[in-house]
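Before our next group meeting I need something from you. Please put the record directly below this note.
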Amino acid sequence: MATVEPRIYRIVLHMDDSKPWSMQQLCKDLSVTAEQQEPIQEDEWGTRGVLELWFQEIEGSNITIHIQKKHSSHKKKYLKELEEFFSDLDNIDYLKDYEEIG
């Protein structure tokens, strides 16, 4: 992903169906902790450091996620953790690709 900005991101992950994957493994690989239960389900929240992630929609192998900063977090920390999050996404072998949506 290009340079990150201090704003809310909405992305769609496109998983590679030819490789085994699960929500539990995805959350583990991205260091995301569920707020309610494991594995994260559709319309549930997870956290990773100062990032709050809303797993808005899970349709087969496509997962829509909103990413925002926790209320009391500083912009600098949010940007650093966003960069790390997108870097981790780039290294997941069962992720075909991802795209930002409006």
Notes: The chain has two helices and six strands. The two ends are 15 Å apart (CA to CA). The CA atoms of residues 16 and 96 lie 5 Å apart.
